[in-house]
Amino acid sequence: METRKEIDPLGEKLIPKEAYYGIQTLRAIENFPVSGIKTPLPFIRAYVLIKKAAATANLEVGCLEEAKATAIVEACNEVLSGKLLDQFLVDVFQAGAGTSFNMNVNEVLANRALEILGKQKGDYKIVSPNDHVNMGQSTNDTFPTALHLSVLIALEPLLCAIEELAEAFDELGEKYALVLKSGRTHLQDAVPLTIGQEFTAYACAIGNACAELHKRKKNLFTVALGGTAVGTGANAHPKYKQLAIGELAKLSGLPLKPAGNNFEALQSQRAAQTVSSGLKELALELIRIANDLRLLASGPTTGFNEIVLPPVQPGSSIMPGKVNPVMAECLDMIAYQVVGCDTTISYAVQAGQMELNVMTPAIMYNLLFSIQILSNYIPVFNKKCVRGIKVNEKQCSQYLDKNPSLATLLAPYIGYMEAAKIAKQALAENRSVKEIALEKGLLTKEEIEKLFSRKNLLNEQ
User: Fold this and answer.
1) Which H or E run includes 150?
2) What is the DSSP string of 153-207?
3) So which residues are the catalytic ones?
4) Where is the domain boundary, 394, 423, 446?
5) Domain-located, residue 359
6) For residue 380, what is the enclosing H or E element?
7) Are 350 and 203 contained in the same domain?
8) What is the CATH number of the domain that holds 84?
9) At 318, is the pLDDT very low, low, confident or very high (cuts 50, 70, 90)?
10) Global confidence as pTM
């Protein structure tokens, strides 16, 4: 393999001649062979957008020569178009603050810019990863900015998917709005509702979680770019911050703005935590709903059997004909992972010390991973599970007819204790409360019919 020699403050190393990464990336590859998981694409794109905006701003303030700035911007455009992605090799578990990845980006862009200028890779006296691509920047302000930007970009398809899932449950609610069934509290029989009301409750819960994420993503519009190492903006032109963030906002189409306090922006990762917490809250609702669907579909002969989930694959390698609620089971596992990622993020957020939180790579990976798995699966769950749900109306009616909790409706007329006796008798004799109430002559037939009417069962006005 042909190589080239590169030098950094720690010494020299041989780099594969055709590689666009350089010596500091190679050191990171050697130092952190941890997971084999490389940086997510949304984060790469966000970081390259920052480098493009920085080069443009530095050109405008007169700190970067036009030829170098133009070559860096062209290199950025190539990466944004999908080229050179195999050159971003740093593991997601890496040096604190993400210095390794920042240098990976700087080196790739510098070496491609050198080629564009007709120079050899590694000729950093012409275009330097540190002096030119990283001009006016630090890992400490670019990595948090890329974190915010990448999450904002990645959230959009997820928010659309969540809204569509809520809509699907709302449609089920409308479709089955008239189907009465037994309610259950403490997993025991309770007074009736419609199964449509259960579905619309799921829609509302998912919609509320989505609304929270919409609200919390606004925390990410404020970015740390321009703060450089500790928040003072050292080594950056006085006009650089405003110009760079303005250019980044234009490139991304997002309403980005400078942090009100650069020092806080480097120290605190609260904004990322609010989004992670929102994802966890969504995950908890999804777990609850998925488990309800599994219960409602349980059986078919020994469970609730009130709904039928679409069959998507055989359920057993040994029991012929068995079909399992696999889509809901998978959603559970994904949601558990999101809860776990939030726990990791929470520990990382509180680990900031003095002028910097160095745990941002862990925050970045876990946050983007949560968004990715939810974005990938929620549309599939919606299509292959929710939109194919059928209600077993006969089973719902049979359960309701024998529900001893209907004695609740008698309590205002005959008292709680007498109603409890009827409920106990109905359960013991496997008969309906209505039948026993008629038999005992506690109310007239007309009063019983009115009492057990749909309007009264659902307290409709």
Assistant:
1) helix 139-175
2) HHHHHHHHHHHHHHHHHHHHHHHTTT-EEEEEETTEEEEEEEHHHHHHHHHHHHH
3) 316
4) 394
5) yes
6) helix 360-384
7) yes
8) 1.10.275.10
9) confident
10) 0.95
